[in-house]
Structure prediction request, 182 residues.
Amino acid sequence: MASGPSENPESFSSTAHTLNDVQLKEFEQVYREEVDHVFRYAMGCTGRREVAEEIASETFLALYRNFPGVDASWRKAWLLRVAKNLAVNHWRKRQRERELPEHTDLPGVSGIPESAESILDHEALKPAHRACLILRYVHGMEREEIVAATGMSLNQVKSCLQYGLKLLRDKFQIDGKGGPHA
Prediction:
C-alpha cells in the first residue's frame, strides 16, 4: 500500500451501521487488496496525486455504500468503472472552470455584449438571477451545467432563470412570446 492513499480501512468502521460484521470484514479485505490498483488507475487518469487520492477515496466510499448490491465477481471492474467515471467528472469540471468567466455575477463581464450588459443592469435582478441569466443566455450553458458551475440546486437555477426573465419582461414590457404587452 505504499503508493496508494494513506487511508486505513478501519476508518470506515465508524460509519459501519449499514454493513453487518461479515460484510464489513469483506469490505476491508477488498479495500486492502484493491486500494493500490484503484489509486494507480486514478493516478494514470488524472496525473495528480491529490486528485487520484480523492478519486480512490470516493470510489471506496461508493463501494461501501453499495457493497451488498455489488456482485463479488464484478467488484474489481465495478471499482475501476467508478474511478473512471469520477476521473471523467473531474476533467469535465476542470474544463467548465476554464470556460467560465471569473465574475459571472457582475455586470461588465468580458464576453457579454454591451446591449445585454445594459439589460442585465436591472436593479431588481439579484446577483444569482444575473449569474444564471448570463450563463444560460450569453454563454449558452444548460441548466445542469449552471448547477455545477454555481453550486445551486437545479430548482434554484430554474427559479432564478424564470424570475429573472419575468423581471426583464416586465421592465421592457414584453410578453412571454417576445412581443410587446398588449
About this structure: The chain has two domains: 9-99, 114-172. The chain has seven helices and no strands. The radius of gyration is 23 Å. The chain has a mean pLDDT of 77.
